[in-house]
Amino acid sequence: MPSPQMQDATVFQTHERFPRPVLLGALTLVLLTMAAALYGRLAGPSEAPAPAAATARLEFRVADRADGAVLVLDTRDGHAIETATGENGFLRGILRSFARERRMAGLGPDGAFRLTSWADGRLTLDDLSTGHRIELEAFGSDNLAVFAKLLTGEGSHS
Predict the structure, then answer these.
(1) Exposure letters 139-151 (e unless 16+ CB within 10 A, then b)
(2) What pTM did the predictor assign?
């Protein structure tokens, strides 16, 4: 008769085997993952598309008027390109968000902005003081048109 310690040891021994399909599935997953990693390493990074060329650019700065309107002024000669009043909320909102970023960075309000139209149809607005860029098409075609008018000189002047 086996000792009590031997009986306890045999109770914990089982003859059940790990299910073969689960083991093969896990092994396949590991091998596929390693193959994908190896392929990615050997193939190298994919080529990024060439950046689109700029088709039009406008550098401007903004000034607040006493009545709450925002003036968009051409940096070349200082003439007013646009007067954004209460009904032009999107333009005012974007420019005010840039002004807030400048204040948080300890910068003054006089730095220029660059509005760029790209050959692939994008329109971007860069704050040249902070380096921040907004892709304006993300806000929809109506809001994009507000800034596109600045490039064509179709802004409203008061």
Answers:
(1) beeebbebbbebb
(2) 0.64
